[in-house]
Amino acid sequence: MNYSMASTGIRQDIEELPFSPIREIVRSAEGKKDIIPFWFGEPDVSTPDFIRESAKLSLDRGETFYAPNSGQMLLRETICEYMNGIYGTEITTENITVSVSGMNALMIAAQALARKGSKVVVLLPSWPNIPAIQRIMGAKLEGVPISMKDGKWNLDLDQVIDTCDSNTSAIVINSPNNPSGWTMSNEEQKALLDYSRKQGIWIVSDEVYARIYFKSDHAPSFCEIMDQEDRVVVVNSFSKSWAMTGWRLGWITAPSNLEVQFEKLTEYNVAGPAPFIQQAGITALCKGEDFIRESNGRYQKALSYFQEWAESQERIEFVPPHAAFYAFFHIWDGKDSLEMAKDLLKTSGVGLAPGCAFGPQYDSYLRLCFATSIPKLEKGLERLEKWIKGLK
Ligand SMILES: Cc1ncc(COP(=O)(O)O)c(C=O)c1O
User: In this structure, how many other beta carbons lie within 10 angstroms of the beta carbon of residue 90?
Assistant: First the structure.
């Protein structure tokens, strides 16, 4: 880790951490009126009542004390039941650590796995926090892009394997992917797991969009193919599927011998989520299936609307995703996505995330979150269309 000091007197690599370009766009909208925001990755509805009620009841019962670091046993048991029901697995509570969000789970995984100075391979495009976490840990980051070809996103597994070496501690995969919606198949997962078994390299699989999947009930998961002793850490979150982004609740599934290690890291980071939040998590898992189905139905309608619009646009190349709730599209002759996003916001009042946030290769891309209503999407796309027509 580079502990040299920067001008502020703190670690230089922290001072040099970039701000998220998405936040930069959001900041530039401060004080502006008539903005249509599609920049953040979250549903535009509040958490369902039945989940909120269960947190209120827990508070009324006075459940306001420290909780166990690995999470309340009832929540861990409920997570096991949920996972085993979906994936047909035999996960037990020793495999589960409750975390303060998916973000916290990814950070705990990196704190445990990213050896100082080791290489961490990250698939691109990537949600910006994943590379940032590796930088904070002092790991050497190497990105492997999946590419858009023949109307789909393709992973070159050989390239991932060729990028790894004896100094590689982990490969981080986010599937279903934010922003592209690309989803890794079970065959690809098996091939990578084989490689991990031979080389002892950890796989961190960020599956926070596992249930926002339009082909079946859930996206392919490493949980379905891994054994107890495999070096795989799977990250999940309540944020997206249960519309709980502000609650900060997630979980890790990992080999049972890591539980005690994650317990220590949780103690020294955050000492776990609040007990009434965990109660809400239990309710979400037990009663949330209808909400998930309805939400996915709305996202699919919004996606169809976007797709029809995109097909009518000459300058847009767009691969419709089968998962998550993002349209990540390429603009022919578009460049400097940060400038494009700023200009779009300034002149048209539409807030999108710039492609550069997800990797330097994507500077001609913009990302729109379609977890929103059709009237809002319609209004936003009318403005976007005008803006694109005005582009040089
Ligand atoms: C790929 C990915 N992983 C993890 C997260 C973190 O989710 P949270 O910290 O809200 O649980 C996000 C949020 O946008 C994400 O897109």
Answer: 10
Ligand 1 atom with least separation from CA of 101: 11
Residues with CB under 6 A from ligand 1: 41, 101-103, 127, 174, 178, 206, 208, 237, 239, 245, 250
Is 103 in contact with 319 (CB distance < 8 Å)? no
To test the ligand 1 pocket, which listed residue (173, 178, 238) has its Cβ within 8 A of the most ligand atoms? Answer: 178
Q: What is the mean pLDDT of the chain?
A: 95
pLDDT at 29 over 60: yes
Closest residue by CA, ligand 1 atom 11? 102
Q: Which of 384, 387, 363, 263 is nearest to 21 (CA)?
A: 363
Question: Could you report the per-residue pLDDT of 181-236, keeping only the tens digit for each?
Answer: 999 999 999 999 999 999 999 999 999 999 999 999 999 999 999 998 899 999 99
Cβ atoms within 10 Å, residue 34: 7
- Residue 216, sorted as left (phi over 0), alpha (psi -120 to 50) or beta, turns out to be beta
Predicted structure pTM score: 0.96
CA nearest 391: which of 310, 318, 337? Answer: 337
Alpha carbon of 208 to ligand 1 centroid (Å): 6
Q: Which domains does the chain have, with CATH numbers?
A: 12-47+290-389 (3.90.1150.10), 49-287 (3.40.640.10)
Nearest by Cα to 41 from 356, 340, 307, 327: 327
Give CA–CA dist 241/55, Å, rounded. Answer: 18
Q: Which of 99, 107, 127, 234 to mutate to test the pocket of ligand 1 (most atoms within 8 A of CB)?
A: 127
Alpha-carbon distances of 324 from 122, 173, 286, 363, 371, rounded to whole Å: 19, 15, 22, 21, 9
H helical segments located in 152-200: 157-163, 186-199
Q: Which of 208, 209, 245, 252 to mutate to test the pocket of ligand 1 (most atoms within 8 A of CB)?
A: 208
**pLDDT single digits (tens) 236-293:** 999 999 999 999 999 999 999 999 999 999 999 999 999 999 999 999 999 999 999 9
* DSSP SS3 for 104: helix
| Encoded tokens for 171 | 């490969």
